[in-house]
Amino acid sequence: xxxxxxxxxxxxxxxxxxxxxxxxxxxxxxxxxxxxxxxxxxxxxxxxxxxxxxxxxxxxxxxxxxxxxxxxxxxxxxxxxxxxxxxxxxxxxxxxxxxxxxxxxxxxxxxxxxxxxxxxxxxxxxxxxxxxxxxxxxxxxxxx
Length: 144
Hints:
There is one protein chain. With 144 residues, the chain is of the alpha+beta class. The protein is 19% helix and 44% strand. It contains 3 helices and 11 strands; from the N terminus they run E-E-E-H-E-E-E-E-E-H-E-E-E-H. Strands 1-2-8-3-7-6 form a 6-stranded mixed beta barrel. Strands 9-10-11 form a 3-stranded antiparallel sheet, with no helix packed on it. A two-stranded antiparallel sheet has the order 4-5. The chain is globular.
């Protein structure tokens, strides 16, 4: 499911909510644009099977995220290179938010002090990302 997310005072688009990811991931270039690279905590980790390969992180960063008025401090692994999405929110974020995603309904529900809130998936962005993925995979198929 693709959503938008407020990080600090920035609205970040192309955020993937990924039940299969064991980490929250942010791209280096997003932090560069926000002038936050100085806040990165040096740490290297190996993310296995990320983008069909293994990727070494450039560090970690703690950032406040705001979803429908619910503020959470989120730990992100910082990677350099293109992953298609600006941020990937994995199981750590979903557990912290106590969020229940529904891929069928393209909906993310989570409790707040004011009651249950929800975020709808960004269907136009998801379709755009799917089209990019399909076009980049064309020509990579090999004939046997």
